[in-house]
Design goal:
7 strands, four-stranded mixed beta sheet, 89 residues, three-stranded antiparallel beta sheet, mainly beta, single chain, 2 helices
């Protein structure tokens, strides 16, 4: 499996890869992620739509500290992910 998925639900960002679903707090005003600009082994550059702005804004997500806090080896977990797509965009 080489593809992971990014989405959001209410105030949470959801990163799904294989059998794993990782949820973490998102900004309260996040409406949705609109595109993924870059994936670099745990670091995402995305465009996100917020309630306070009618245009999407560039946002950054670093999964490595989140994985470490969950006692998941970043290198092992991220090694096979080649692409991240939006789910329910």
């Amino acid at each position: 499996m080489e593809c992971a998925y990014l989405s959001n639900d209410k105030n949470y960002t959801i990163f799904k890869y294989g059998p794993y679903t990782i949820r973490f707090k998102a900004p309260y005003s996040l409406e949705r992620y609109t595109s993924i600009k870059e994936w670099d082994h745990g670091y995402l550059v995305v465009m996100a739509k917020y309630r306070h702005n009618k245009e999407s804004e560039e946002e950054y997500i670093d999964l490595i500290p989140i994985l470490k806090d969950l006692y998941i080896s970043p290198d092992t977990f991220l090694n096979d992910i080649k692409e991240v797509r939006l789910r329910n965009a």
